[in-house]
Amino acid sequence: MSLLPLNGPDDQRLSELAATVDVQRDPEELALLAGDESVVQPVVPGAAVMARSVEDVAATMRWAHTHGVPVTPRGAGSGKAGGCVPTPGGLVLSLAPMTAITVVHPEHGYAEVEPGVITETFRDSMEHEHRLFYPPDPASLDWCTLGGNVATNAGGPVALKYGVTGQHVMGLTLVLADGRVIETGRRQPKDVAGYDLTSQIVGSEGTLAVIVGVRLGLLPIPREVRTALLGFSSMGEAASALVDARRAGVLPRAMEVVDPVALQRVRSTWEHEGSPFGVDEATNALLLVEVDGPEGTTEAALQAMLDGMRSGPNSVREASSAAERGALWATRREMSKRVKRGALGWVTEDIAVPLGTMPSVTAELADIGARHDLTIACYGHIGDGNLHVNVLWETEAGAGQASAAVDDVMALALRVGGTVTGEHGIGRAKTKWLEDRLGAPALALQRSLKSAWDPRGILNPGVAL
Ligand SMILES: Cc1cc2nc3c(=O)[nH]c(=O)nc-3n(C[C@H](O)[C@H](O)[C@H](O)COP(=O)(O)OP(=O)(O)OC[C@H]3O[C@@H](n4cnc5c(N)ncnc54)[C@H](O)[C@@H]3O)c2cc1C
């Protein structure tokens, strides 16, 4: 069945929808819903619905299904793959106004939320009001939504020990493409009745159903956390330290890397301000590591990890207060902005590779930069094998080289058995590599699943598949 996009905010079909839900048609407001944090060109939607209830979403989807209008679900727009960039003439369905933490059951170990709850708001509320721990901590946690986190299966630093968002999703309330509402999942740790539909929606980037409710598992709060900034003289040493730490029998909760080029770039942006990442000139790469556990155990765990590292570190700075720890993490969260300062343009990829290949992969990434005469600056969740590879250019000529360099980066990740996206998703930005990653038969099966969930193809067409 063909899609029938809107022909602008005056499209007659919208009056029918506007009778039941809040339809946004103001061009200035629509422009704010056009893009995300990727390099994908923004597209101003034909209109937008600001959803405030499950019934708003269901009414919107019934209408869109009847009229064949493409719909793009949207959280905060912090995505880095263009997943919430709408189809021309499409409708944006914003879940941002649905911000209630509906219920908390400390005795069962879960809470239920609406999709527009900001990740940090939820984490803080669980910790301070209920003494419970919701681990996922994407670096955008102060503005991304839990619905968006589920739709992208977001990671973050502590995913190393606690797993990515999907590992904490116990169940979902979904509005299907034709407006029907279903529940998936469980209320207790185990349930193997039927296919696991929750897992199908996790990471589906708004292409299968609209997430209107999320049941999230909660853990006891770790009693002690210890954070340290380790300096290395080379990236090779930092990359090997990861494997050494595991051999030493310690699984840190986070292990983040800053490579020499990224460190150099942030050093210069902080020159006049002083930075928590300020380290001596002999240091060329950083690991930000964190261990947690029962009271009185983390000092020994950190020491065992350091003892296990065969080359370096040449400096260790442990955070001595909550404020210092907070400053280190705030600095880490600013890396995305800081490494790009002064560049004319950039593409950020988030490849993930098998852990033992990290030393050779990081060396090859530097070679790719040199070969294309571009700057490649990496940082990211190295403990998960996940690197944010920033391909940057300072001249117009550089822009012409970027696409070939990115192809080489993706080919490298796939050659070593890794993937083209560790956590940001395929979105609109990475569709060209999906078949290489999955293989044609698996991709065809995924297309059949898409047709089963969304027979008219109205949910986020052009995204992911
Ligand atoms: C500075 C910065 C740091 C970041 N750090 C991390 C990180 O550490 N780890 C990480 O994984 N990501 C990171 N990201 C990427 C981004 O924040 C995540 O992908 C996040 O999960 C997106 O949430 P959102 O609410 O902004 O979703 P959006 O960007 O609005 O949407 C993302 C995708 O989810 C779909 N979607 C959103 N809500 C729903 C819903 N309710 N139902 C169905 N589909 C929906 C959209 O259609 C789209 O495909 C970072 C981004 C920035 C800008």
Task: Walk me through the structure.
This protein is an alpha+beta fold and 465 residues long. The protein folds into 4 domains: 13-94, 2-Layer Sandwich (Uridine Diphospho-n-acetylenolpyruvylglucosamine Reductase, domain 2); 101-220, Uridine Diphospho-n-acetylenolpyruvylglucosamine Reductase, domain 3 (2-Layer Sandwich); 222-336, Alpha-Beta Plaits (2-Layer Sandwich); 342-449, Alpha-Beta Plaits, CATH 3.30.70. 34% of the residues lie in helices and 21% in strands. The protein is built from 16 helices and 18 strands. The chain has helices at residues 13-18, 27-31, 54-67, 119-130, 146-152, 159-162, 197-201, 235-247, 260-269, 298-308, 322-333, 335-340, 358-372, 396-415, 434-438, 440-453; strands at residues 23-24, 47-50, 71-74, 91-94, 101-105, 110-113, 132-133, 169-175, 181-185, 210-217, 219-220, 224-232, 254-258, 285-293, 315-318, 345-352, 375-380, 386-393. The strands form 4 sheets. Strands 15-12-14-13-17-18-16 form a 7-stranded antiparallel β-sheet, sandwiched between helices. A 5-stranded antiparallel β-sheet has the order 5-6-10-8-9. A 4-stranded mixed β-sheet has the order 1-2-4-3. The longest helix is centred in the last third of the chain and has 20 residues, at 396-415. The radius of gyration is 23 Å and the shape is globular. The mean pLDDT is 94. Bound molecules: flavin-adenine dinucleotide (FAD). Flavin-adenine dinucleotide binds next to strand 3, helix 5 and strand 10.
